[in-house]
Design brief:
Layout (H helix, E strand, L loop, with lengths): L16 E8 L9 E9 L4 E9 L2 E10 L38 E5 L13 E8 L7 H7 L19 E8 L12 E11 L2 E10 L4 E10 L27
Antiparallel strand pairs: 1-4, 1-7, 2-3, 3-4, 5-6, 6-8, 7-10, 8-9, 9-10
């Protein structure tokens, strides 16, 4: 899915994407995805594009994106930067392909003691990530990185359970207005709340220099069964691992 690579049809210049939302209606399979785009609003300050994705004629996602030019205004970043070792001081993630086949495209170096399926106390994972093909961190790449780590709950669990995404929203900062970032990105994902078979994850992506590139939130469906541990201590079944992140 390349929704973040869009520019609103008919625009005269490249207008940066400011927000992206996707609702996943059905599992998408590897292969072509036909996107149809409509422009319900095209204005000087902001434009909105609506997108429908189909495979074999069936709708698998609907979404929207907001585009808008930069302009003079106040600057503020109220989120504290993450105090972690640099990527050169962090070891490679063990067996990332067991968590997601897409991991073959990435180098992932956990930046804290928390590991996927490590049975920790906090539902949070932090890692340095870069693409093995050396691609720049443009809006498309950054959107992928917001969902590239396993769900935050995996930091607490010891066995995997499917937690597919029902809805994902990404907000991009002005840090990409001047062009893409390069090299490593620092990615954090954490589960803010979970209960009644749903989980709310928040993620952030920063450049190697510490600039905030994007924030994302997503609603996930937690598929439970006996034998698996959830945050409240109840047991659930052990099932195979993590979904491929949306966008691949």
């Amino acid at each position: 899915m390349r929704m973040i690579a869009m520019r609103e049809p008919g625009s005269r210049g490249a207008r940066p994407v400011r927000a992206l939302t996707a609702h996943f209606l059905a599992p998408a399979v590897a292969g072509s995805l036909h996107l149809s785009v409509a422009v319900p609003s095209a204005r000087r300050r902001a434009s909105t594009c609506a997108v429908t994705g189909r495979q074999d004629g069936a709708r698998v996602l609907v979404g929207s994106a907001v585009f808008g030019p930069g302009r003079p205004g106040p600057a503020y970043d109220g989120r504290p930067s993450l105090a972690v070792p640099g990527p050169q001081d962090c070891g490679l993630l063990d067996s990332p392909l067991e968590l997601s086949p897409f991991a073959q495209n990435l180098e992932i170096r956990p930046a804290t003691d928390a590991q996927p399926l490590g049975g920790g106390e906090k539902a949070e994972l932090v890692a340095w990530v870069r693409f093995v093909d050396g691609r720049a961190l443009d809006a498309e790449a950054v959107a992928i990185l917001t969902d590239v780590l396993p769900p935050g709950l995996y930091a607490r669990w010891r066995t995997a359970c499917p937690i597919p995404t029902a809805e994902l929203t990404v907000h991009f900062t002005d840090a990409l207005d001047a062009g893409p970032a390069e090299g490593w990105a620092l990615v954090r994902i954490r589960t803010e709340q979970a209960g009644n078979g749903w989980a709310l994850d928040e993620s952030e992506v920063r450049s190697a220099e510490g600039r905030l590139l994007a924030l994302a939130r997503q609603a996930r469906v937690v598929q439970d069964a006996p034998g698996h541990q959830n945050p409240s201590g109840h047991q659930h079944q052990t099932l195979p691992g993590h979904q491929t992140p949306p966008g691949h």
